[in-house]
């Protein structure tokens, strides 16, 4: 979806990068709630009307759903912070066979790698002063995120709904050099072979990647913040139903995990 040159991350000062990560994870949280509503994965009456980026948005009011979204985005944020994540995707699956119906992709190839946690704590006292001098126009950042949310929400409510009873997962695609997140406790599980990108050990692209059609939603660029939003309509081929094990560069967090 992007050129290989965009794989390199841009170095960003610690306070600025930490604030950008917080902005990104907040955006992902709001967007996931928005898509859960617009794609009718839960009944409309289980959502309340809220506001974000000066826009009306929908938020699930079910404690279990809210906790899952919060924990899943936090786990994805850990991979983004470490510079391990190439992208994050909300993946919708058919209720039987787990075939991929839709993928809402947020490609993060250009997002900067942040310092280690200990290094960030050492600089915490200087963050407020540095943030005033970092040159980031936060009004532009918020406006860019607002525009992306509007485009995602518009597409999510305007295209035909997925089949009834669909489930979903949050997937993180790792960079080629990243270590798999298999530490204890294991928050992520390897994704299905149909969702695996080509690797050195497995040059074949997963059958569910690419989909029947790919729609660019919006490129978000404001200062050092850059990522792309895509919608991928699933192929629903027989291969999507095949489950197995192999080396995995995409890891999923499902509602039951």
UniProtKB/TrEMBL annotation:
Q: What PANTHER family does its record include?
A: MITOTIC SPINDLE ASSEMBLY CHECKPOINT PROTEIN MAD2, MITOTIC SPINDLE ASSEMBLY CHECKPOINT PROTEIN MAD2B
Q: Record's SUPFAM superfamilies?
A: The spindle assembly checkpoint protein mad2
Write out the GO cellular component annotations: zeta DNA polymerase complex
Transmembrane segment boundaries:
none
| Name of this chain's protein | DNA polymerase zeta processivity subunit
List where Basic and acidic residues composition bias occurs: 115-126
The UniProt entry, under InterPro entries, shows: HORMA_dom, HORMA_dom_sf, Mad2-like
Its family? Belongs to the MAD2 family.
Taxonomy, top ranks, is: Eukaryota, Fungi, Dikarya, Ascomycota, Pezizomycotina
HORMA domain ranges (all copies) = 18-231
- According to the record, the residues making up region (Disordered) are 115-136, 184-216
- Where are stretches of biased composition, namely Polar residues? 193-205
Pfam family of the protein (one): HORMA
């Amino acid at each position: 979806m992007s050129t290989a040159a965009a794989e390199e991350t841009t170095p960003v000062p610690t306070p600025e990068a930490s604030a950008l990560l917080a902005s990104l994870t907040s955006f992902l949280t709001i967007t996931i709630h928005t898509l859960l509503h617009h794609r009718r994965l839960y009944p409309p009456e289980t959502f309340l009307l809220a506001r974000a980026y000066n826009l009306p948005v929908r938020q699930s009011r079910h404690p279990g759903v809210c906790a899952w979204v919060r924990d899943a985005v936090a786990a994805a944020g850990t991979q983004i912070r470490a510079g391990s994540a190439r992208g994050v995707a909300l993946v919708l699956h058919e209720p039987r066979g787990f075939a991929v119906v839709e993928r809402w992709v947020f490609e993060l190839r250009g997002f900067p790698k942040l310092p280690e946690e200990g290094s960030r704590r050492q600089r915490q006292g200087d963050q407020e002063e540095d943030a005033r001098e970092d040159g980031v126009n936060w009004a532009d950042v918020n406006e860019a995120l607002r525009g992306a949310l509007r485009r995602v929400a518009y597409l999510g409510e305007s295209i035909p709904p997925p089949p009834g009873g669909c489930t979903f997962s949050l997937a993180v695609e790792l960079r080629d050099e990243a270590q798999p997140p298999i530490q204890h406790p294991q928050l992520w599980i390897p994704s299905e072979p149909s969702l695996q990108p080509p690797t050195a050990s497995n040059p074949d692209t997963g059958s569910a990647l690419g989909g029947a059609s790919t729609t660019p939603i919006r490129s978000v660029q404001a200062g050092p913040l850059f990522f792309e939003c895509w919608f991928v309509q699933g192929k629903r081929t027989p291969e999507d139903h095949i489950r197995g094990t192999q080396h995995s560069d995409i890891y999923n967090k499902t509602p039951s995990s």
